[in-house]
Amino acid sequence: xxxxxxxxxxxxxxxxxxxxxxxxxxxxxxxxxxxxxxxxxxxxxxxxxxxxxxxxxxxxxxxxxxxxxxxxxxxxxxxxxxxxxxxxxxxxxxxxxxxxxxxxxxxxxxxxxxxxxxxxxxxxxxxxxxxxxxxxxxxxxxxxxxxxxxxxxxxxxxxxxxxxxxxxxxxxxxxxxxxxxxxxxxxxxxxxxxxxxxxxxxxxxxxxxxxxxxxxxxxxxxxxxxxxxxxxxxxxxxxxxxxxxxxxxxxxxxxxxxxxxxxxxxxxxxxxxxxxxxxxxxxxxxxxxxxxxxxxxxxxxxxxxxxxxxxxxxxxxxxxxxxxxxxxxxxxxxxxxxxxxxxxxxxxxxxxxxxxxxxxxxxxxxxxxxxxxxxxxxxxxxxxxxxxxxxxxxxxxxxxxxxxxxxxxxxxxxxxxxxxxxxxxxxxxxxxxxxxxxxxxxxxxxxxxxxxxxxxxxxxxxxxxxxxxxxxxxxxxxxxxxxxxxxxxxxxxxxxxxxxxxxxxxxxxxxxxxxxxxxxxxxxxxxxxxxxxxxxxxxxxxxxxxxxxxxxxxxxxxxxxxxxxxxxxxxxxxxxxxxxxxxxxxxxxxxxxxxxxxxxxxxxxxxxxxxxxxxxxxxxxxxxxxxxxxxxxxx
Amino acid sequence: xxxxxxxxxxxxxxxxxxxxxxxxxxxxxxxxxxxxxxxxxxxxxxxxxxxxxxxxxxxxxxxxxxxxxxxxxxxxxxxxxxxxxxxxxxxxxxxxxxxxxxxxxxxxxxxxxxxxxxxxxxxxxxxxxxxxxxxxxxxxxxxxxxxxxxxxxxxxxxxxxxxxxxxxxxxxxxxxxxxxxxxxxxxxxxxxxxxxxxxxxxxxxxxxxxxxxxxxxxxxxxxxxxxxxxxxxxxxxxxxxxxxxxxxxxxxxxxxxxxxxxxxxxxxxxxxxxxxxxxxxxxxxxxxxxxxxxxxxxxxxxxxxxxxxxxxxxxxxxxxxxxxxxxxxxxxxxxxxxxxxxxxxxxxxxxxxxxxxxxxxxxxxxxxxxxxxxxxxxxxxxxxxxxxxxxxxxxxxxxxxxxxxxxxxxxxxxxxxxxxxxxxxxxxxxxxxxxx
Amino acid sequence: xxxxxxxxxxxxxxxxxxxxxxxxxxxxxxxxxxxxxxxxxxxxxxxxxxxxxxxxxxxxxxxxxxxxxxxxxxxxxxxxxxxxxxxxxxxxxxxxxxxxxxxxxxxxxxxxxxxxxxxxxxxxxxxxxxxxxxxxxxx
Lengths: 635, 436, 139
Known about the structure:
Chain B is α/β, with parallel strands linked by helices. In chain B, 24% of the residues lie in helices and 25% in strands.
């Protein structure tokens, strides 16, 4: 890594002014700009060319550097976005550090917007400002951070398994951490998947077997991350494994052992790879990247919501799927021992909640989002009932049918064709469920207003109500805090930008895979998992991470150790004070520094600055600009 | 094309829209050499032509141009613009693509993008990049943020007056430049050929006489709303008036078995809501109505976006609206069945009507004969659950709207996925070869 | 249009948004006063209060900070900047400098009209107020 300062050779700036074939020279008196530039004390040579970006133009620069006339370069031409990299390349070819270069934008910001003598004056000011900055430039080197070719994936649902396999197949060592004794996550609790109809259990078994048999993947079940530290390429994680404790896990394990497992698949639980630990154990990992695949949890209706928990014939969609999977062929659909001849499916339970309209008990934050998958999952369940229990009368009570995905609309069309009755309710007027009068809780009455019939009030009698429950974020809160990740208002993990960096949280080296970020279906979660691993793979496959050099640097001589910069720093861990016994001095961790300069603004002695963009450089530019203003007066 | 471009690559990416660029960037970052083949004179695809994008409402250019610039500057990426695809075949284990590069009539190596030719050209032509609402010249830079910034001559409209050649400072204009056929090869292929709109829907659904100037497509509305659009404000194309009422017809061709396609085009609900919000910003007094069947706001923060639009006073009418004519003031007449009020069929006029048209595959058939399409015409995924980017051909991957309608967020994620599948395939192939 | 008699206007334009926005204005050949100087900055959060005051001391007539707004790529930097500019306004007031001489705004990569509007507005302010300190004399 380059140190702070150390540049002692006096600045000999070369200024090269481009005509851009008339684009600039038709409006700017380039000869005059050349003369003015040549008169500046720091300038060794000033030259012009019709096309600085052409080979002859670049050769002028290379020759001046090679022959020792010039050790800093300013090119005055078009916008830097077009040719800054071209000219930095010319410097590098000539053996000069490419960061000893400054650009003056005299086409887009001068000749294309100003005409007459004012244009020439402004071009001269911009060149003078660029020269002033160039004289203060220091050589910079890209920052290299060693990166361990090892990644940790948290969560072994489909996204986590897919992520682990992706990375291992790219030659990266993987530790897969799963909190339960089973692999497969919520996927293991499904039956068939839309729109392919494939068995969820087969997909879980396939993924789990492949992950377990891959030599580069190490799987820890019953495990969680207890502590996390470090930064990109060099995270340290403490994994703790504990014997299973929840009632559900213990029952499922007992069942598994009675069928001769592990290893093997238990329906609606997942793949049990090995016996869980009998005592607590701790594993310390050094890992280069962390992939979060902590998934989702089904929304649990509160007591009394649509009669749930109070009326036995009100169940959730995941509960119904499990009930149906255990049902013998023949006879009517039977739920809780009672035959079901008619049922109603209610959409958006725990999703699309609207402030002011919905007030969940206990002050739970509203789930204002759409859970994305429940509409098609509900249609799929309706079709399966029609297939296996064709006599069943089915009502579908929705707000909108969101069969958005490829092949999903076919489910909607087929359900309509098969006689599923679609009724629509308004968010402000949801259906009301009660037991039939005089019954024993087996018959239900649904009151609703159907907005498709001008708001007509209906009473439906059914044997069952199924609640299409939405998604809640999985158990990632503690981990998010440890890794300093943000969560959105919806509770899901937050990406930097949905389009620019869709699978990256603000912490470099950490990636989001699947439903920990937002509701999504299995295919979408797997795609997101590989979008995360392509980033992690790009990072880890080289053995080092190269970061732009534009990060904070400290002049240790000038630093008084006051700590104001640490206070002002926006990225925790990027700046700290060296601990005693050393003298207190600010220390930058370039792997974490954002390069925003919030530190520079508060440093009284001016001891910290963003490399390549320092305050003295800007002050010099302003001085040159003002002087140029005065010079323009004489011209 | 520049004569010194390489022709052998690790990966060929067909399509230089946001999906293709993202896939190319991910692969180049992993050290693979990538060719991006684009039919247009600029990369950027549909996205660079949009105004602002949902649900963040940041400007489309601000998101697209950094990726376009990164692709064009990346040493591992070679861009082939103005290239029509001939045929893709597998030859000796390599995928070989025959390309026809249409003549730019401007030498790529000489042109410096200075626009002198454009200023000198005396011929004005309706600018399709601005929905035909303003003019461009017969030789021109395709649009302000095009990459590469190279002029292209439109031979259909050029009068051969010779002025552009005379003013060009680098002698780049070449009237006689021929189309050029050449072949590039890759070890893997990514199909990111995107979508197009069903622009003939008015004829299909409303009859041959239904076309009228103030009945526009959603992409035309994007140009009207763009800060660098044809009028820099929203005016209706028919007569330049500021519209007082604007309506959106959702599912114009989508979810329409009789007149269109049976599938949902997935993005139209959200962009119509977005356009409605932008309109209510630029035309605060205008009435804005969206006629919809279902509002499909399913993505992250989309439902909240929809609820905001409702709170802003945008009217949502649950109905399939039909265009039935034009009124004396140039407005568009619609009929619809008002289900929510139970009042039956109604007729209503709007000053400007936008059709949220169905999305169709960008290529009429998959660019490689052996790659299968689904019944909807989009490229078929053979593993939609585990790896949606896999096609029926080994080593051939797909992402974005080429494999079914998709929004930008989902396209970008899927592009990363397709790139990862391709990188795994290449690494495995490399090992196989080393072992052999 | 030459504005050489007017005090200069300094524009701090963010590398990610406003600087490309200024180039977009150039590509569209939209004119604006030439007593402007655009400086490219990663994040204006790096400038201390005194930087702005010293600019005015040296004769800069107006400063426009063209940021990315809440779309700032440096998480949290925009908020820091906005707070600092509030303090600069207070210090300007103490020195008898008109608050109109400093503007914090957000400009996107294709915000041509907004860019022109901001620059013209500041040019009017500077033309009216004259060199910094002029308003003190008038008061």
